Amino acid sequence: MSASRHPALLATDPELASYVTAEESLQAQTLRLIPSENYVSAAVLEASGTVLQNKYSEGYPGRRYYEGQQNIDRVEALAVERAKGLFGVDHANVQPYSGSPANLAVYLAFAKPGDTVMGMALPMGGHLTHGWGVSATGSWFRGVQYGVSAETGLIDYDAVRELALTERPKIIFCGGTALPRTIDFAAFASIAQEAGSILVADVAHIAGLIAGGAHPSPVGHVDVVSTTTHKTLRGPRGAMLMCREEHAKAIDKAVFPGLQGGPHNQTTAGIAVALHEAAQPSFVTYAHAVVANAKALAQALLAKGFDLVSGGTDNHLILMDLTSRGVPGKVAAKALDRAGIVVNYNTVPFDPRKPFDPSGIRIGTPSLTSRGLGVEHMPTVADWISRAVDAAAKSDEPALSAIRAEVADLLSAFPAPGLPVA
Ligand code: DSN
After folding, report:
1. What was the pLDDT predicted at 421?
2. CATH classification code of 283-411
3. N or C: fewer beta carbons within 10 Å in the chain?
4. Where are the domains of the chain?
Protein backbone atom coordinates (compact mmCIF):
# COMPACT_ATOMS: atom_id res chain seq x y z
CA MET A 1 0.00 0.00 0.00
CA SER A 2 1.30 3.44 -0.84
CA ALA A 3 1.26 6.65 1.16
CA SER A 4 0.54 8.55 -2.08
CA ARG A 5 -3.10 8.42 -1.02
CA HIS A 6 -2.12 11.34 1.25
CA PRO A 7 0.40 13.20 -0.91
CA ALA A 8 0.32 16.51 0.98
CA LEU A 9 0.67 14.78 4.30
CA LEU A 10 3.52 12.67 2.99
CA ALA A 11 5.34 15.75 1.71
CA THR A 12 4.85 17.78 4.91
CA ASP A 13 5.16 15.14 7.60
CA PRO A 14 6.45 11.79 6.35
CA GLU A 15 6.67 10.37 9.86
CA LEU A 16 3.00 11.02 10.60
CA ALA A 17 2.05 9.85 7.08
CA SER A 18 3.82 6.56 7.72
CA TYR A 19 1.69 5.97 10.85
CA VAL A 20 -1.51 6.61 8.91
CA THR A 21 -0.44 4.24 6.15
CA ALA A 22 0.49 1.60 8.71
CA GLU A 23 -2.92 1.97 10.32
CA GLU A 24 -4.59 1.55 6.93
CA SER A 25 -2.71 -1.73 6.47
CA LEU A 26 -3.57 -2.87 9.99
CA GLN A 27 -7.26 -2.15 9.50
CA ALA A 28 -7.20 -3.91 6.11
CA GLN A 29 -5.41 -7.05 7.26
CA THR A 30 -6.95 -7.70 10.69
CA LEU A 31 -10.36 -8.94 11.73
CA ARG A 32 -11.74 -6.07 13.79
CA LEU A 33 -14.22 -7.41 16.30
CA ILE A 34 -14.44 -4.50 18.74
CA PRO A 35 -18.22 -3.96 18.76
CA SER A 36 -18.00 -0.18 19.08
CA GLU A 37 -15.84 0.16 15.95
CA ASN A 38 -16.63 0.09 12.26
CA TYR A 39 -15.39 1.19 8.84
CA VAL A 40 -16.79 4.51 7.60
CA SER A 41 -17.33 4.95 3.88
CA ALA A 42 -14.95 6.92 1.67
CA ALA A 43 -17.68 9.59 1.43
CA VAL A 44 -17.84 9.98 5.23
CA LEU A 45 -14.04 10.14 5.37
CA GLU A 46 -13.96 12.85 2.71
CA ALA A 47 -16.68 14.92 4.37
CA SER A 48 -14.85 14.68 7.70
CA GLY A 49 -11.64 16.05 6.22
CA THR A 50 -12.94 19.18 4.51
CA VAL A 51 -12.34 22.92 4.90
CA LEU A 52 -15.41 23.05 7.13
CA GLN A 53 -12.65 22.40 9.68
CA ASN A 54 -11.60 26.04 9.31
CA LYS A 55 -14.79 27.63 10.58
CA TYR A 56 -15.96 28.72 14.03
CA SER A 57 -19.74 28.47 14.44
CA GLU A 58 -20.79 28.87 18.07
CA GLY A 59 -24.57 28.85 18.20
CA TYR A 60 -27.09 27.05 16.02
CA PRO A 61 -28.16 27.48 12.36
CA GLY A 62 -29.53 31.02 11.93
CA ARG A 63 -28.38 32.02 15.46
CA ARG A 64 -24.57 32.17 15.41
CA TYR A 65 -22.06 34.34 17.20
CA TYR A 66 -19.80 34.45 14.13
CA GLU A 67 -20.44 35.61 10.56
CA GLY A 68 -19.78 33.69 7.34
CA GLN A 69 -22.09 30.79 8.21
CA GLN A 70 -23.86 30.60 4.82
CA ASN A 71 -22.63 27.07 4.13
CA ILE A 72 -22.10 25.84 7.67
CA ASP A 73 -25.74 26.55 8.52
CA ARG A 74 -26.84 24.46 5.56
CA VAL A 75 -24.57 21.59 6.57
CA GLU A 76 -25.80 21.55 10.16
CA ALA A 77 -29.47 21.98 9.18
CA LEU A 78 -29.10 19.08 6.74
CA ALA A 79 -27.62 16.83 9.44
CA VAL A 80 -30.41 17.80 11.85
CA GLU A 81 -33.17 17.16 9.29
CA ARG A 82 -31.65 13.81 8.35
CA ALA A 83 -31.39 12.75 12.02
CA LYS A 84 -35.01 13.75 12.63
CA GLY A 85 -36.18 11.86 9.56
CA LEU A 86 -34.13 8.72 10.20
CA PHE A 87 -35.03 8.31 13.87
CA GLY A 88 -38.50 9.91 13.77
CA VAL A 89 -37.79 12.52 16.45
CA ASP A 90 -39.02 16.10 16.95
CA HIS A 91 -35.59 17.54 17.66
CA ALA A 92 -31.95 16.64 17.10
CA ASN A 93 -28.75 18.28 18.29
CA VAL A 94 -25.75 17.10 16.25
CA GLN A 95 -23.07 19.14 18.04
CA PRO A 96 -21.89 16.97 20.98
CA TYR A 97 -18.21 16.17 20.49
CA SER A 98 -18.70 12.54 21.48
CA GLY A 99 -20.80 10.26 23.67
CA SER A 100 -19.47 11.32 27.08
CA PRO A 101 -20.02 15.08 26.47
CA ALA A 102 -23.47 14.26 25.05
CA ASN A 103 -24.40 12.45 28.26
CA LEU A 104 -22.91 15.21 30.40
CA ALA A 105 -25.15 17.69 28.57
CA VAL A 106 -28.16 15.58 29.58
CA TYR A 107 -27.16 15.92 33.25
CA LEU A 108 -26.71 19.65 32.78
CA ALA A 109 -30.17 19.91 31.22
CA PHE A 110 -32.11 17.96 33.84
CA ALA A 111 -30.19 17.67 37.14
CA LYS A 112 -28.23 19.64 39.71
CA PRO A 113 -24.99 18.46 41.34
CA GLY A 114 -25.80 16.13 44.21
CA ASP A 115 -29.03 14.85 42.66
CA THR A 116 -29.58 11.11 42.47
CA VAL A 117 -29.15 9.57 39.03
CA MET A 118 -29.49 5.95 38.02
CA GLY A 119 -27.86 3.79 35.38
CA MET A 120 -26.50 0.33 34.76
CA ALA A 121 -23.31 -0.45 36.69
CA LEU A 122 -20.20 -0.35 34.48
CA PRO A 123 -19.11 -3.95 35.32
CA MET A 124 -22.63 -5.16 34.45
CA GLY A 125 -22.48 -3.65 30.96
CA GLY A 126 -23.30 0.02 31.59
CA HIS A 127 -21.22 3.07 30.68
CA LEU A 128 -18.93 5.24 32.79
CA THR A 129 -21.17 8.26 32.19
CA HIS A 130 -24.27 6.57 33.59
CA GLY A 131 -23.29 7.62 37.12
CA TRP A 132 -20.34 5.28 37.71
CA GLY A 133 -18.10 6.44 40.58
CA VAL A 134 -14.84 7.16 38.73
CA SER A 135 -16.67 9.38 36.22
CA ALA A 136 -17.63 13.00 36.90
CA THR A 137 -21.22 11.77 36.57
CA GLY A 138 -20.75 9.56 39.63
CA SER A 139 -18.91 12.13 41.72
CA TRP A 140 -20.89 15.29 40.88
CA PHE A 141 -24.14 13.33 41.15
CA ARG A 142 -25.22 10.53 43.47
CA GLY A 143 -25.16 7.49 41.21
CA VAL A 144 -27.26 4.45 42.04
CA GLN A 145 -26.78 1.44 39.84
CA TYR A 146 -28.71 -1.56 38.61
CA GLY A 147 -27.29 -4.72 37.04
CA VAL A 148 -28.26 -8.05 35.57
CA SER A 149 -29.52 -11.23 37.19
CA ALA A 150 -26.73 -13.59 38.27
CA GLU A 151 -28.72 -16.56 36.94
CA THR A 152 -29.73 -15.27 33.51
CA GLY A 153 -27.34 -12.42 32.73
CA LEU A 154 -30.44 -10.40 31.76
CA ILE A 155 -31.73 -7.12 33.19
CA ASP A 156 -34.16 -7.84 36.02
CA TYR A 157 -36.82 -5.18 35.39
CA ASP A 158 -38.50 -5.83 38.76
CA ALA A 159 -35.22 -5.04 40.52
CA VAL A 160 -34.78 -1.89 38.37
CA ARG A 161 -38.29 -0.78 39.33
CA GLU A 162 -37.71 -1.41 43.02
CA LEU A 163 -34.48 0.62 42.97
CA ALA A 164 -36.09 3.46 41.02
CA LEU A 165 -39.05 3.68 43.39
CA THR A 166 -36.76 3.63 46.44
CA GLU A 167 -34.29 6.20 45.08
CA ARG A 168 -36.57 8.38 42.89
CA PRO A 169 -33.65 9.43 40.62
CA LYS A 170 -33.82 12.64 38.59
CA ILE A 171 -32.50 10.77 35.56
CA ILE A 172 -32.55 7.09 34.59
CA PHE A 173 -30.19 5.88 31.86
CA CYS A 174 -30.89 2.69 29.94
CA GLY A 175 -28.44 1.23 27.45
CA GLY A 176 -24.75 0.48 27.83
CA THR A 177 -21.55 -0.81 26.32
CA ALA A 178 -21.64 -4.55 26.92
CA LEU A 179 -25.31 -5.50 26.61
CA PRO A 180 -25.88 -8.42 24.26
CA ARG A 181 -29.65 -8.40 24.56
CA THR A 182 -32.60 -6.29 23.38
CA ILE A 183 -33.43 -3.38 25.68
CA ASP A 184 -37.10 -3.20 26.68
CA PHE A 185 -37.62 0.57 26.35
CA ALA A 186 -41.33 0.30 27.19
CA ALA A 187 -40.51 -1.40 30.51
CA PHE A 188 -37.99 1.35 31.35
CA ALA A 189 -40.56 3.99 30.37
CA SER A 190 -43.16 2.66 32.76
CA ILE A 191 -40.56 2.51 35.56
CA ALA A 192 -39.39 6.08 34.88
CA GLN A 193 -42.95 7.34 34.78
CA GLU A 194 -43.73 5.72 38.14
CA ALA A 195 -40.54 7.11 39.67
CA GLY A 196 -40.99 10.59 38.17
CA SER A 197 -37.62 10.39 36.39
CA ILE A 198 -36.34 11.69 33.08
CA LEU A 199 -35.57 8.61 30.97
CA VAL A 200 -32.54 8.63 28.67
CA ALA A 201 -31.80 5.84 26.19
CA ASP A 202 -28.09 5.72 25.43
CA VAL A 203 -28.22 3.83 22.15
CA ALA A 204 -24.62 4.53 21.11
CA HIS A 205 -23.96 0.85 20.40
CA ILE A 206 -27.22 0.05 18.63
CA ALA A 207 -28.10 3.29 16.81
CA GLY A 208 -27.34 1.73 13.43
CA LEU A 209 -29.43 -1.32 14.26
CA ILE A 210 -32.32 0.96 15.25
CA ALA A 211 -31.94 3.01 12.05
CA GLY A 212 -31.93 -0.18 10.01
CA GLY A 213 -34.90 -1.70 11.82
CA ALA A 214 -32.88 -4.48 13.48
CA HIS A 215 -33.54 -3.34 17.08
CA PRO A 216 -36.69 -1.69 18.53
CA SER A 217 -36.53 2.09 18.75
CA PRO A 218 -36.69 3.97 22.05
CA VAL A 219 -38.46 6.88 20.32
CA GLY A 220 -41.91 7.36 21.83
CA HIS A 221 -40.79 5.71 25.10
CA VAL A 222 -38.00 7.93 26.39
CA ASP A 223 -37.41 11.64 27.01
CA VAL A 224 -33.98 11.80 25.41
CA VAL A 225 -32.03 9.57 23.04
CA SER A 226 -28.26 9.89 23.28
CA THR A 227 -26.02 8.29 20.71
CA THR A 228 -22.56 8.37 19.30
CA THR A 229 -22.39 8.39 15.52
CA HIS A 230 -19.41 6.11 14.90
CA LYS A 231 -20.43 2.65 16.05
CA THR A 232 -23.11 0.61 14.26
CA LEU A 233 -24.33 3.91 12.72
CA ARG A 234 -21.05 4.00 10.74
CA GLY A 235 -20.40 7.74 10.83
CA PRO A 236 -17.49 9.87 12.06
CA ARG A 237 -16.57 10.08 15.74
CA GLY A 238 -19.27 12.34 17.16
CA ALA A 239 -22.62 12.24 18.91
CA MET A 240 -26.23 13.39 18.79
CA LEU A 241 -28.96 14.11 21.31
CA MET A 242 -32.54 13.64 20.17
CA CYS A 243 -35.73 14.47 22.05
CA ARG A 244 -39.32 15.58 22.00
CA GLU A 245 -39.97 19.27 21.32
CA GLU A 246 -40.66 19.98 25.01
CA HIS A 247 -37.01 19.21 25.88
CA ALA A 248 -35.42 20.82 22.80
CA LYS A 249 -34.48 24.12 24.44
CA ALA A 250 -33.02 22.49 27.55
CA ILE A 251 -30.90 20.11 25.46
CA ASP A 252 -29.64 22.80 23.08
CA LYS A 253 -28.79 25.16 25.94
CA ALA A 254 -26.92 22.42 27.76
CA VAL A 255 -24.78 21.50 24.73
CA PHE A 256 -24.06 25.16 23.85
CA PRO A 257 -23.34 27.35 25.74
CA GLY A 258 -23.63 25.02 28.75
CA LEU A 259 -20.88 22.57 27.96
CA GLN A 260 -19.22 23.17 24.60
CA GLY A 261 -17.93 25.94 22.40
CA GLY A 262 -17.83 25.81 18.61
CA PRO A 263 -19.14 22.65 16.94
CA HIS A 264 -16.75 20.56 14.85
CA ASN A 265 -18.29 21.39 11.48
CA GLN A 266 -16.26 18.82 9.54
CA THR A 267 -17.68 16.15 11.84
CA THR A 268 -21.20 17.51 11.40
CA ALA A 269 -20.69 17.09 7.64
CA GLY A 270 -19.54 13.50 8.12
CA ILE A 271 -22.57 12.83 10.32
CA ALA A 272 -24.86 14.25 7.63
CA VAL A 273 -23.36 11.89 5.05
CA ALA A 274 -23.59 8.89 7.38
CA LEU A 275 -27.26 9.67 8.10
CA HIS A 276 -27.91 9.85 4.35
CA GLU A 277 -26.25 6.46 3.91
CA ALA A 278 -28.24 5.05 6.84
CA ALA A 279 -31.49 6.06 5.12
CA GLN A 280 -30.75 3.85 2.08
CA PRO A 281 -32.25 0.36 1.64
CA SER A 282 -28.73 -1.13 1.69
CA PHE A 283 -28.36 0.04 5.30
CA VAL A 284 -31.40 -2.03 6.31
CA THR A 285 -29.68 -5.04 4.78
CA TYR A 286 -26.44 -4.19 6.61
CA ALA A 287 -28.16 -3.75 10.00
CA HIS A 288 -29.94 -7.09 9.76
CA ALA A 289 -26.73 -8.75 8.55
CA VAL A 290 -24.85 -7.42 11.61
CA VAL A 291 -27.37 -9.17 13.87
CA ALA A 292 -27.50 -12.36 11.77
CA ASN A 293 -23.70 -12.55 11.85
CA ALA A 294 -23.59 -12.02 15.62
CA LYS A 295 -26.19 -14.73 16.21
CA ALA A 296 -24.33 -17.13 13.91
CA LEU A 297 -21.02 -16.33 15.60
CA ALA A 298 -22.58 -16.84 19.05
CA GLN A 299 -23.92 -20.25 17.96
CA ALA A 300 -20.53 -21.25 16.61
CA LEU A 301 -18.77 -20.14 19.80
CA LEU A 302 -21.27 -22.06 21.96
CA ALA A 303 -20.57 -25.11 19.81
CA LYS A 304 -16.86 -24.63 20.65
CA GLY A 305 -17.79 -24.77 24.36
CA PHE A 306 -17.46 -21.05 25.18
CA ASP A 307 -19.56 -19.44 27.92
CA LEU A 308 -21.43 -16.39 26.65
CA VAL A 309 -23.02 -13.92 29.06
CA SER A 310 -26.82 -14.32 28.81
CA GLY A 311 -26.23 -17.39 26.61
CA GLY A 312 -25.99 -15.52 23.31
CA THR A 313 -26.97 -12.28 21.64
CA ASP A 314 -29.89 -10.37 20.13
CA ASN A 315 -27.77 -7.58 18.66
CA HIS A 316 -24.24 -6.94 17.37
CA LEU A 317 -22.33 -7.84 20.52
CA ILE A 318 -21.16 -10.96 22.33
CA LEU A 319 -19.65 -10.98 25.82
CA MET A 320 -17.47 -14.05 26.37
CA ASP A 321 -16.61 -15.29 29.87
CA LEU A 322 -13.29 -17.16 29.52
CA THR A 323 -13.15 -18.42 33.12
CA SER A 324 -13.89 -22.01 32.13
CA ARG A 325 -11.10 -21.91 29.50
CA GLY A 326 -8.62 -20.89 32.20
CA VAL A 327 -7.38 -17.86 30.23
CA PRO A 328 -7.85 -14.31 31.61
CA GLY A 329 -9.52 -11.87 29.23
CA LYS A 330 -6.44 -9.69 28.86
CA VAL A 331 -4.17 -12.61 28.00
CA ALA A 332 -6.71 -13.83 25.44
CA ALA A 333 -7.20 -10.35 23.93
CA LYS A 334 -3.44 -9.87 23.49
CA ALA A 335 -3.03 -13.32 21.94
CA LEU A 336 -5.95 -12.67 19.58
CA ASP A 337 -4.30 -9.38 18.60
CA ARG A 338 -1.15 -11.28 17.67
CA ALA A 339 -3.39 -13.61 15.65
CA GLY A 340 -4.79 -10.65 13.68
CA ILE A 341 -8.12 -10.58 15.54
CA VAL A 342 -8.75 -7.33 17.41
CA VAL A 343 -11.03 -7.47 20.47
CA ASN A 344 -11.13 -5.80 23.86
CA TYR A 345 -10.87 -7.47 27.25
CA ASN A 346 -13.92 -6.75 29.35
CA THR A 347 -15.41 -7.42 32.76
CA VAL A 348 -18.28 -9.88 32.88
CA PRO A 349 -21.16 -9.45 35.36
CA PHE A 350 -20.08 -10.42 38.92
CA ASP A 351 -16.48 -10.64 37.72
CA PRO A 352 -14.16 -11.71 40.56
CA ARG A 353 -11.20 -10.21 38.65
CA LYS A 354 -10.16 -6.55 38.39
CA PRO A 355 -11.35 -4.28 35.48
CA PHE A 356 -7.77 -3.98 34.13
CA ASP A 357 -7.40 -7.78 34.17
CA PRO A 358 -10.93 -9.16 33.84
CA SER A 359 -12.42 -12.56 32.95
CA GLY A 360 -13.92 -11.77 29.59
CA ILE A 361 -13.57 -10.41 26.10
CA ARG A 362 -16.14 -8.39 24.19
CA ILE A 363 -16.61 -8.97 20.48
CA GLY A 364 -19.04 -7.79 17.81
CA THR A 365 -19.85 -7.97 14.12
CA PRO A 366 -20.30 -4.40 12.74
CA SER A 367 -16.87 -4.13 11.11
CA LEU A 368 -16.77 -7.57 9.55
CA THR A 369 -20.30 -7.06 8.24
CA SER A 370 -19.28 -3.75 6.65
CA ARG A 371 -16.57 -5.71 4.82
CA GLY A 372 -19.17 -8.13 3.47
CA LEU A 373 -18.50 -11.23 5.58
CA GLY A 374 -21.64 -13.29 6.10
CA VAL A 375 -23.04 -16.02 8.34
CA GLU A 376 -21.17 -18.64 6.31
CA HIS A 377 -17.88 -17.21 7.62
CA MET A 378 -18.82 -17.21 11.30
CA PRO A 379 -17.81 -20.85 12.03
CA THR A 380 -14.34 -19.99 10.70
CA VAL A 381 -14.18 -16.88 12.91
CA ALA A 382 -15.25 -18.95 15.94
CA ASP A 383 -12.63 -21.54 15.10
CA TRP A 384 -9.90 -18.87 14.92
CA ILE A 385 -11.00 -17.45 18.28
CA SER A 386 -11.03 -20.91 19.87
CA ARG A 387 -7.61 -21.83 18.50
CA ALA A 388 -6.16 -18.47 19.56
CA VAL A 389 -7.50 -18.80 23.11
CA ASP A 390 -6.05 -22.31 23.33
CA ALA A 391 -2.76 -21.02 21.92
CA ALA A 392 -2.77 -18.24 24.53
CA ALA A 393 -3.06 -20.86 27.28
CA LYS A 394 -0.01 -22.68 25.88
CA SER A 395 1.94 -19.58 24.74
CA ASP A 396 1.94 -21.15 21.28
CA GLU A 397 3.21 -18.26 19.10
CA PRO A 398 3.48 -20.28 15.85
CA ALA A 399 -0.22 -21.18 16.18
CA LEU A 400 -1.08 -17.48 16.53
CA SER A 401 1.04 -16.59 13.48
CA ALA A 402 -0.70 -19.30 11.46
CA ILE A 403 -4.12 -17.88 12.36
CA ARG A 404 -2.91 -14.38 11.45
CA ALA A 405 -2.01 -15.58 7.96
CA GLU A 406 -5.39 -17.29 7.54
CA VAL A 407 -7.20 -14.12 8.66
CA ALA A 408 -5.30 -11.90 6.23
CA ASP A 409 -5.88 -14.40 3.44
CA LEU A 410 -9.68 -14.45 3.91
CA LEU A 411 -9.91 -10.68 4.39
CA SER A 412 -7.99 -9.97 1.19
CA ALA A 413 -11.19 -11.01 -0.64
CA PHE A 414 -13.27 -8.51 1.37
CA PRO A 415 -11.86 -5.00 0.91
CA ALA A 416 -12.88 -2.66 3.72
CA PRO A 417 -14.91 0.48 2.96
CA GLY A 418 -12.83 3.64 3.01
CA LEU A 419 -9.48 1.86 2.81
CA PRO A 420 -7.12 1.67 -0.17
CA VAL A 421 -7.27 -1.66 -1.99
CA ALA A 422 -3.98 -3.50 -1.54
N1 DSN B 1 -18.59 3.24 24.27
C2 DSN B 1 -17.46 2.50 24.77
C3 DSN B 1 -17.27 1.27 23.96
O4 DSN B 1 -18.22 0.57 23.88
O5 DSN B 1 -16.19 0.93 23.43
C6 DSN B 1 -16.36 3.34 25.06
O7 DSN B 1 -16.77 4.37 25.93
Report:
1. 75
2. 3.90.1150.10
3. C
4. 47-278, 283-411
